């Protein structure tokens, strides 16, 4: 056991573990990685790529019985028109917000410098967790205010609550203001926490994944809330409850803020509704 922990510590703290990966990225894709457009391309493409498997599950529906046993609200499946509506909103946001913001970045921000040194694995993991925790706090406050102040809710957040049974494509079925805020924090937080670029990109992709998972409508055995013990992490079943019962579970990732503020609701609520 002692040997194991020592090995683990050596492995995590090892500065050179990620170095070969970082070197090969730097040498082969230097110009792409330095571009201020890279983080945008990375997050947008991972969004569509990671939505795809869940979208296929929704489209296959009953034909995939094994998958459907994990559906959180089995009686409520997104219809073709709902899916098309969300695809439309997402496309609209990307054409009128994401694209102009990317062009502005590309035009005004100089290419970034790629450091020679890779982060250690421990730095990378700590950075990703730090970013998730910081975002979780910011979005918790933002989300709470947008539910408590009626004007804010109606003007900005109501669109995201069109659906009380979420599905992957509903993740970015957001108003422009919400998308801009979320994008702003996701870009700013790694700078505040002085993260390495590799850590920043890892966080961005993971953040996209967990946001989709929150909305996917399925609670698979490998969902984050099942992989992370003690109910630390909310995951799909908790956020599903937020869409059914909007005065609970405001935090996007972890469950501590909702527990502290008394807004935490378990999935037993929706089981009672069925
Ligand atoms: Zn949601
Ligand atoms: Zn909400």
From TrEMBL:
Main subcellular localisation: membrane
The entry's keywords: Membrane, Transmembrane, Transmembrane helix
PANTHER family: STEROL DESATURASE
Domain Fatty acid hydroxylase, first and last residues per copy: 131-263
Localization, UniProt: Membrane
Any Gene Ontology biological process: lipid biosynthetic process
Identification of the protein by name: Cholesterol 25-hydroxylase like 1, tandem duplicate 2
Encoding gene, per UniProt annotation: ch25hl1.2
Origin species: Sparus aurata
Pfam families according to UniProt: FA_hydroxylase (PF04116)
GO cellular component, one term: membrane
UniProt superkingdom: Eukaryota
Presence of keyword Transmembrane: yes
GO function term, MF aspect, one: oxidoreductase activity
Transmembrane spans: 37-61, 82-104, 124-145
